[in-house]
Amino acid sequence: MVISRRATLSARVVVLIYLGLLLLLPLGVVFERTFAHGLAAAWGWITTPAAISAFWLSVIIAAIAVPLNTIFGVGCALVLVRSRARGRKVLDALIDLPFAVSPVIVGLALLLVYGQTGWFGTWFAHQGIRIIYAPTGMVLATIFVSLPFVVREVAPVLMEIGDEQEQAAATLGASGWQTFWRVTLPSIRWGVAYGVVLTTARALGEIGAVLVVSSNVAGSTLTLPLLVYQRDSQIGAGEISGAYAAATELAVMSLIVLLAMTVLGPRRNETK
Amino acid sequence: MGIATLYLSVIVLIPLAAVVAKAFSQGLSPFWDAVTNPLALKAIGVTLAVSVLVAGIGAVMGTLVAWVLVRDEFPGQRFVNALIDLPFALPTIVAGLTLLALYGPDSPFGLHLAYTRAAVVVALLFVTLPFVVRSVQPVLIELDREVEEAAASLGASNAVTFRRIVLPALRPGIMSGAALAFARSVGEIGALILVVGKVQIASIVIFADIESDAPSAAASLSVVLLAISLIVLFALRWFGGPRGGH
């Protein structure tokens, strides 16, 4: 299509204005609100004991959920692409479930199974183990919502590289583990890395599912996103500013994630 | 395979089964009553209407954005391209807060959209922006421009070329992006919880039911919501979008 200069320009302007209004402007306003009272005040808000403990809880939950989902994701992708096991198709369809389920339903589901009166919850309660309204439940919720990312990134790469090299390694006498570590993993590493970045972003940012299973007590079961929510729903200018500061903290983390996505994105299908 | 299935069962399948079981624990008629009471019906209606609108606007604007990113060239294009993924990287609660800052009571432009359906639509447009753009973009890059040139040299106008050549090629990408955006909109809560006010969105109603200790009502509405998203995503798989292959 030969498109006139004017049409091209106006499309460009429309798109840039749309993206500016939708993405950049809101972000700018939050940064502005955070630093409106000066850098020291903003630093003060994110270093209150509640904010520091929320930061660490977010990091710890991600540090548990991301490795587990990565191991599961790579293993599951291998099963889906390489094995001929029965039920493979069913597993393939089920993997995507977490993307189709509303986070609030995830929370409800975990509540019904692991809550005090839930299916398994009563047993855990007898053992004195608390899952719901405790960090364990928040970890489960986070694992649930971020489960498919690694599988969905790694499976296409595995399909792309084929299994010739793996077979060659096996013919030359390599064990299953050796083949995985020396041949398979190096070729899928960018795909894995991209999946890990997406999983981390979701794990750090999740609110819907975590909100339901958290007791929302500052200092013990508040993550950073929950802190933003709680501060914003409380009255008082200081609290609102605290919400903006915590939001800015999260936004900075997500800009790092975005940078990682931009760097890793084009390389994820590279196999060397 | 065994371990993968166990992991998936403990974390995903058994809890979801519990929701379905809870919804029907008192039999079919209490479930039916729970989802057909006026409040639940209204919530489902509003959620569907909002999600269709978001998927529609998202499809048009997302395609335009993808077009400009692929066919146009301007300084800063790579930056804009990277920016598209921002909604996937940014925690949704922050997205909600930013929109509240812009359109809430302290709006710098005196725009008071917060706590209305318009605010819900804007929040969902933000959250779902990458879906259509990222599913149309690769198709547009692969698209053979010679066919378009051939059409033009045979006398087809731009409108005809677009409608007959370009759009059919892009349609699967647009459809799959819009379906993903729709499914996400139906279930979204993080970005909405601060801006929703009294608008009755299904996910918010479910949350309120859980908080007020009415898990059966919450489970019933959840089943309806689950069914809607699953139908859309299965339809997508069936008709085979770009992501449908694996």
Topology record:
The complex is a heterodimer of chains A (272) and B (246).
Chain A: H1 5-35, H2 39-46, H3 49-82, H4 88-95, H5 97-100, H6 103-114, H7 121-126, H8 135-145, H9 148-161, H10 164-171, H11 176-205, H12 208-213, H13 224-233, H14 237-264
Helix pairs in contact in A: 1-14, 2-14, 3-8, 3-9, 3-11, 3-13, 6-8, 9-11, 10-11, 11-14, 13-14
Chain B: H1 2-23, H2 28-36, H3 38-71, H4 77-83, H5 86-89, H6 92-103, H7 117-142, H8 145-153, H9 158-187, H10 202-211, H11 215-239
Helix pairs in contact in B: 1-11, 2-11, 3-7, 3-9, 6-7, 7-9, 8-9, 9-11, 10-11
Cα separation of the termini of chain A: 37 Å
* Radius of gyration of chain A, CA atoms, in whole angstroms: 23 Å
Task: Estimate the helix proportion of chain A, in percent.
Answer: over 70%
CATH fold naming of chain B: MetI-like fold
Query: What is the average per-residue confidence, as pLDDT of chain B, rounded to a whole number?
Result: 86
Helix content of chain B: over 70%
How does CATH name the architecture of chain B? Orthogonal Bundle
Q: What is the averaged pLDDT score of chain A?
A: 85
Number of strands of chain B: 0
Any idea of the CATH class of chain B? Answer: Mainly Alpha
CATH class of the largest domain in chain A: Mainly Alpha
